[in-house]
From TrEMBL:
Residues 17-474 form the Aldehyde dehydrogenase domain. GO terms for molecular function: betaine-aldehyde dehydrogenase (NAD+) activity; metal ion binding. The gene is betB. The lineage of its organism: Bacteria, Pseudomonadati, Pseudomonadota, Alphaproteobacteria, Rhodobacterales. This is Betaine-aldehyde dehydrogenase. It comes from Octadecabacter antarcticus 307. Keywords: Metal-binding, NAD, Oxidation, Oxidoreductase, Potassium. One of its GO terms (biological process) is glycine betaine biosynthetic process from choline. PROSITE patterns: ALDEHYDE_DEHYDR_CYS (PS00070), ALDEHYDE_DEHYDR_GLU (PS00687). Belongs to the aldehyde dehydrogenase family.
């Protein structure tokens, strides 16, 4: 691993790196070596004010540019991000512990995709004309103003870009607060956007914990808040934003189901379950951690899954042959170990894994429980780690009811070769993002988001434009105005 990735400064504000060491120190701990590899400082009130003032001052001129001009900046940033993909991926691997094999193809690249997509879309943002006899109405699509983005620690580069791209395409400015667990990557996104031509103050990054986020989202200059995080954090952010009647997008957690029928292609089903449970060491919000397997294929599924898990290779994530990294932090590792202990105590059958790997680094073995029942803690609570729960089922109607019996609704998937059944299942899933015969694919062209406690609003696709802009109606009277007196 790289042991010196200290950023130029903790914050990026108004087109430049800014430091204030009087803020609370935030050490960056390598998940492999367990050593400090960098340090940043939480934003002080002065830093927060500087960022919000810069974003407020810069926004109007940015919104006054044509969409094509704004899009050109975003597309240029996408090109720069792709040119620097290797260095950005190394930084992400150090920040999160995710294998370089993964970050090279899934992190900065997807951030670049978002910048490119919304850069291309920016020039097409228009209103409409509505003829009303001789009178008419036209609508203007306008920016909201200053947006606040709050990121999670599992995909720090991607999330910073996913929030920046639609916000900036619509003419907004943004102050982004990354997770204190992974503070480094968003700084590079800000640096690249500025280099690509985004005016100073349009995209700012400040560090900090919950109190910094609270200060940002309750500031009267802020028009919109976009959060990626846990449900408990989402409740707090939603409530704080609601006090100011702010626009909100919430991409929260899940306990998503994957339903595998007897007629499914076994290899595809096992691959989908691996992607839905062990990619990023299980630290993915949309993971399908409740795997319902029809009884006729259950033992074959478990046998093939166990065989595939022998191909797991842990080690230095910068080694591109390594395909399984550590948890992001010691605390997260301990939380997941606690869930594993509950699974064993409540009677689930441990099929694979179940413990820590080695004594250095926050590595956990990919863990599989079978004979899991709906009421077990590992089947009800979001774990956010490499723990798969396999549940039995017999009947389509019954499994759909059980799959939906959760307060979450982020994602759901089905594996079957019966086309009619596949479409019945996804129509019946109470989830915002669903899959047929694949899992956890999130292209920028498709809306991404959840229902129920898993969130509100959508990220990516044209749908995101509606969450970062507002329509103004303009009624034009062409005839004399009549009045009752």
């Amino acid at each position: 691993m790289t042991y010196d990735i200290q950023p130029t400064a903790s914050h990026f504000i108004d087109g430049a790196y800014v430091e204030d060491t009087s803020g609370t120190p935030i050490p960056v701990i390598c998940p492999v070596s367990e050593k400090q590899i960098a340090i940043v400082y939480a934003a002080t009130p002065a830093i927060i004010e500087q960022a919000l003032a810069a974003a407020t001052r810069a926004q109007a001129a940015w919104a006054a540019m044509t969409g094509t001009q704004r899009g050109r900046v975003l597309r240029r940033a996408a090109d720069i991000m792709r040119e620097r993909n290797y260095d950005l991926s190394v930084l992400e691997t150090n920040d999160t512990g995710k294998p370089l094999q993964e970050t090279l193809v899934a992190d900065a690249t997807s951030g670049a995709d978002a910048l490119e997509y919304f850069g291309g879309l920016a020039g097409s943002l228009t209103g409409e004309h509505i003829q009303l006899g001789s009178d008419f109405v036209y609508t203007r699509r306008e920016a909201l103003g200053v947006c606040v983005g709050i990121g999670a620690w599992n995909y720090p580069t991607q999330i910073a870009a996913w929030k920046a791209a639609p916000a900036l395409a619509c003419g907004n400015s943004m102050v982004f607060k990354p997770s204190e667990q992974t503070p480094l990557c968003a700084l590079k996104v800000a640096e690249i956007l500025f280099e690509a031509g985004a005016p100073a103050g349009i995209y700012n990054v400040v560090q900090g914990m919950g109190e910094v986020g609270h200060t940002l989202i309750t500031d009267p200059r802020v028009a919109k808040v976009s959060l990626t995080g846990s449900v408990p954090t989402g409740r707090k952010v939603y409530a704080a934003a609601a006090a100011g009647i702010r626009h909100v997008t919430m991409e929260l957690g899940g306990k998503s189901p994957i339903v595998i029928f007897d007629d499914a292609d076994l290899e595809n089903a096992v691959s989908g379950a691996i992607l839905g449970n062990f990619y990023s060491s299980g630290q993915v919000c949309s993971n399908g951690t409740r795997v319902f397997v029809q009884s006729g294929i259950k033992e074959a599924f478990l046998a093939r899954l166990s065989a595939r898990l022998k191909d797991v290779k842990m080690g230095d994530p910068l080694d591109e042959s390594v395909n399984f990294g550590p948890m992001v932090s010691k605390r997260q590792m301990e939380i997941v170990l606690g869930f594993i202990a509950k699974g064993i105590a409540e009677g689930a059958r441990l099929v694979a894994g179940g413990g820590r790997q080695g004594d250095m680094g926050y590595f956990l073995q990919p863990t599989v429980f079978a004979d899991v029942t709906d009421e077990m803690t590992i089947a009800t609570d979001e774990i956010f780690g490499p723990v798969m729960s396999v549940l039995d089922f017999e009947d389509e109607d019954d499994v759909l009811t059980r799959a939906n019996a959760t307060d979450f609704g982020l994602a759901a998937g089905v594996f079957t070769n019966d086309l009619s059944r596949a479409h019945r299942m996804v129509a019946g899933f109470e989830a915002g993002t669903t899959y047929i015969n694949t899992y956890n694919v999130s292209p920028v062209e498709a809306p991404f988001g959840g229902s129920k406690l898993s969130g509100v609003g959508r990220e990516n696709s044209k749908a995101a434009i509606n969450h970062y802009s507002q329509l103004k109606s303009v009624y034009v009277g062409m005839a004399p105005v009549e009045a009752p007196f």
